[in-house]
Design goal:
By secondary structure, this protein is of the alpha/beta class. The chain folds into 3 domains: 207 residues, Rossmann fold; 59 residues, no CATH class; 139 residues, Trna Endonuclease, Chain: A, domain 1 (3-Layer(aba) Sandwich). β10 and β11 form a beta hairpin. The longest helix is centred in the N-terminal third of the chain and has 18 residues. It is globular. The chain starts with 11 loop residues before the first helix and ends with a strand.
Length: 523
Amino acid sequence: MKKRLGLDTSSFRKLREKDLVYVDKTKWIYKLITEGECYFLSRPRRFGKSLTISTLKELFYGNKELFKGLYIYDKWDFKKHPVLIFDFNEITNKTPKDLESALGTLLDYYFEVNKTKRPPSDDLSFLFKQLIVTLHEKFNQKVVILIDEYDKPIIEHLGKGEEELKIAIQNRNILQDFFGVLKGANVVDIIQFVFVTGVSRFSKVSIFSKWNNLQDITMRGEFADFLGYTEEEVRIYFKNYLEELAEEYDLTEEEIIEKLKFYYDGYRFSESNDVRVFNPVSIMYCLQEKKFKNYWFATGTPSFLINLIKEKNYYIPNLKKVEIAGPLLETFDIENLEIEPLLFQSGYLTIKNYDLENDIFELSYPNIEVEKSLCEVLLKAVSEKSGTIILATKLGKAFKNEDFEDIKYYINAIFNEIPYPHYKKADENYFHTIIYLSLSLIGYNAKSELLSSRGRLDLALIFPDKVYVIEFKCNSPAKDAIKQIKDKKYADKWKNQGIKTILCGINFDTEKREVKEIVFEEI
């Protein structure tokens, strides 16, 4: 009998009691709880961080029967410990005062539910310390502390202007003081286990700058496949779903696996371990709905990322291939945000290659789902109109069918959707970016800034039966773009392979904000 997928819950208890699909990750949990005490793990959203917190909660509650049949079942004593959970998905953070109030309310709850006396103080750090000490004394067991999405009070205020940035900094300082308690001499010896999750690894937060016994396992090779699903796990735990999906698309199981990998696989979380994992939520939605769609933004649009990209006028086509030094990849500061490490830690970029000798990472999109999703939301953010997506679809179809007049028409139609204020810094890169986004979001193989021995090609649009070699100009004849393609031999790679090659030169009129001239030439 096929088990139901647990897409509507991140509760370990519900998954086990209702006999839903659970990919056994307790091998890694056992490693954590037997080899150390304090850990931090950063992973993108929808990768199972909250489920991991829930699993640890049940384990330290001593609920052994929930783990029957899992790796850890006969290896752990399941002794019951007092557990404190700080889930920042549920803790208000609109203002620093709201954050402090919510933390205070949660501490009050823990004093009450454990039937212990709350000290007469409004000092959150003091109350937190006393709660830990009191629980240890009452239950004669060390205390477990689980912190989920610690960075949400920071992230939710980024990319929204100076006033919101001040709130992010104030919230950061509150977290610094609050969790700094866990390094204190009065509590460090009575803590059994601490596990902290988040999307990002901000510097200047207590758990990193002051809490020096916290192990960051985010990039550790042995935990590269702790969260997310490997191909082997997909084959084992979702076999019935794979068979149904293969039948739906009239493909073999191997062919359907390759299609799933193209859409939802490709996340690499360690320079030392090349294992790749699937986004767990996206692949389960695909298996359940039997549709290859973009599920990445189904639970919300990353507004702070989009705002930051727009604010810094970041050149989007560069995301196809990003090179970054190792020290810059793992941490960043609120007051000095860099796009690339933020996109990496948030899951929009992943490790493609690593140069050990020079400590250089090559990053790119993990899969087609993320690339299309990000391009779609960026194009919507620029145009501010939903109709732009339909026009982009028609533009892609025009390229596919070699309808040259329609290509010019739909490019101009897309630019007509963009409000005038967005054209203030319009240049060749700006026009290039809009076309790149339009073609990438509908799944066409649009490769930007391709390097040759003589320079960089603006864009190659690759179909199974042909390739467009595209060069952009502003206020210069389109024939000059064609000449540049020929002079620099940008098209030789495909021409020599016998692939139908169409040269395309596009001249944008920056004053009229439209394509003035477009020239095609087949070679």
